[in-house]
C-alpha cells in the first residue's frame, strides 16, 4: 500500500513538473514571439520614418532640385549638417522657373526652400553692395582693397560653407515648429519664392526679422505681398528692422514708410570673419505711418 502511495505521489510530482515545464516553455516562446514582433514593428517604424522623411524632403525641394538627383549631383535643399559645404550648384539661378506665388503661413516642409531663398537673396544684395562701393555710392574708410578683390570668392565661400548650411537648419526648425510670424510665398510646385518673418517685442513694437525674395521673383510683386501681409499682422505699431547699407533693401523698406533710425552698425561677425564688409542700418516704421 505504501509503495502504491509513493508511486502515485511520484506520478503527481511528474505531472506537476511537466505542467510547470510546459508553462515555462510557453512563456519563453511567448516572450520570444513578442520580442520578434517588437523588432519587426520597430523595423517597420524605422522604414516608415525613412519614407516619410524622404517624402518631406522631396516635397520641400523645387522641381529643379529634384531633377538634379538623377544626375548624381548633390541636392541643393537637403543638407542639414552645419559642417557640410553646399555644392556650388546651390547658387545656380537658371534652372528655377518663375511662376505665380501665393503668400501663406509657412508649412513644416518649407525650411529648405526658405533657406535657399534667403541665401540667393543675400548673394544678390552683397553683390549690389560691392557695385555700390566700386561706384563710390558707399564710402567705407576702413575698407581693405584686398577685400574688394576677393569679394565674390569670399562671398560664395561664406554662403556655401556657413550661411547656407546654418540657415537650412535654422529655418527648418522654425517652419516645423509652426512659427506664427513666418510667412512664405510659394508656387504651385512648392518652390519658395520669398519669405518674411515678423514678431512682437515685449514693449509691443513690431520687428521684421527677415524679408527675402528669391532673385528670380524680383519685380513680380512677391516682396510687396509678403510685406503687406506682415504689416497687417503686426497692426498699427512701431516696427523696426535692420538691413545692409548700400543695398536696394534700404529703398524697398523706405517704400513702405520705414526711415533710417540711429547710427550705422558694424558688420556682423560671421561676415567680417569671411572677409566681407556689410555695415548694418536700423530702420523704423512709426505707428502713424503704419496706420496710413
Structure description:
- With 292 residues, this protein is α+β, with helices and mostly antiparallel strands.
- 52% of the residues lie in helices and 14% in strands.
- The chain has 9 helices and 7 strands; from the N terminus they run ααβαααβββαβαβαβα.
- It has helices at residues 2-60, 63-70, 111-135, 145-149, 151-176, 222-234, 248-254, 269-273, 287-290, and strands at 102-105, 182-186, 192-200, 206-213, 239-244, 259-260, 280-285.
- A 7-stranded mixed sheet has the order 1-2-3-4-5-7-6.
- Strand 3 and strand 4 form a beta hairpin.
- Helix 3 packs antiparallel against helix 5.
Q: Over all CA atoms, what is the radius of gyration?
A: 30 Å
Instruction: Indicate the multimeric state.
Output: single chain
Low-confidence stretches: 41-82
The backbone outline, from C-alpha atoms, is elongated
Fraction of helical residues:
40-55%
Spatial strand sequence of the major β-sheet: 1-2-3-4-5-7-6
* Order of helical and strand elements: HHEHHHEEEHEHEHEH
Instruction: Report the biggest beta sheet as strand number plus sense, adding barrel if it closes.
Output: 7 strands, mixed
SS summary, helix count: 9
Helix and strand composition category: alpha+beta
Query: Terminal Cα separation, in Å?
Result: 114 Å
In percent terms, what proportion of residues is strand?
5-15%
Can you count the beta strands? 7
Query: Overall mean pLDDT score?
Result: 80
Amino acid at each position: 500500500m505504501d509503495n502504491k502511495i509513493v508511486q502515485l505521489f511520484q506520478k503527481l510530482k511528474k505531472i506537476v513538473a511537466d505542467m510547470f515545464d510546459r508553462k515555462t516553455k510557453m512563456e519563453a516562446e511567448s516572450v520570444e514571439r513578442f520580442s520578434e514582433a517588437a523588432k519587426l514593428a520597430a523595423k517597420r517604424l524605422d522604414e516608415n520614418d525613412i519614407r516619410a522623411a524622404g517624402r518631406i524632403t522631396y516635397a520641400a525641394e523645387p522641381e529643379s532640385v529634384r531633377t538634379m538627383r538623377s544626375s548624381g549631383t548633390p541636392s541643393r535643399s537637403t543638407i542639414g549638417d552645419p559642417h557640410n559645404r553646399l555644392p556650388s550648384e546651390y547658387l545656380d539661378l537658371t534652372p528655377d522657373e518663375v511662376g505665380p506665388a501665393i503668400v501663406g503661413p509657412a508649412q513644416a516642409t518649407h525650411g529648405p526652400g526658405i533657406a535657399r531663398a534667403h541665401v540667393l537673396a543675400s548673394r544678390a544684395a552683397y553683390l549690389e553692395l560691392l557695385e555700390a562701393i566700386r561706384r563710390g555710392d558707399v564710402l567705407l574708410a576702413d575698407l581693405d582693397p584686398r577685400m574688394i578683390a576677393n569679394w565674390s570668392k569670399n562671398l560664395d565661400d561664406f554662403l556655401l560653407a556657413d550661411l547656407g548650411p546654418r540657415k537650412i537648419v535654422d529655418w527648418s526648425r522654425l517652419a516645423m515648429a509652426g512659427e506664427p510670424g513666418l510667412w512664405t510665398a510659394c508656387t504651385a510646385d512648392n518652390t519658395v519664392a520669398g519669405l518674411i518673418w515678423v514678431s512682437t517685442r515685449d514693449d509691443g513694437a513690431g520687428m521684421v526679422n527677415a524679408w527675402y525674395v528669391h532673385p528670380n521673383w524680383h519685380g513680380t510683386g512677391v516682396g510687396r505681398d509678403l510685406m503687406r501681409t506682415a504689416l497687417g499682422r503686426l497692426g498699427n505699431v512701431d516696427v523696426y528692422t535692420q538691413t545692409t547699407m548700400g543695398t536696394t533693401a534700404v529703398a524697398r523698406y523706405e517704400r513702405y514708410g520705414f526711415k533710417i533710425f540711429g547710427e550705422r552698425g558694424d558688420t556682423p561677425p560671421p561676415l567680417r570673419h569671411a572677409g566681407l564688409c556689410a555695415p548694418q542700418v536700423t530702420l523704423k516704421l512709426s505707428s502713424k505711418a503704419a496706420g496710413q
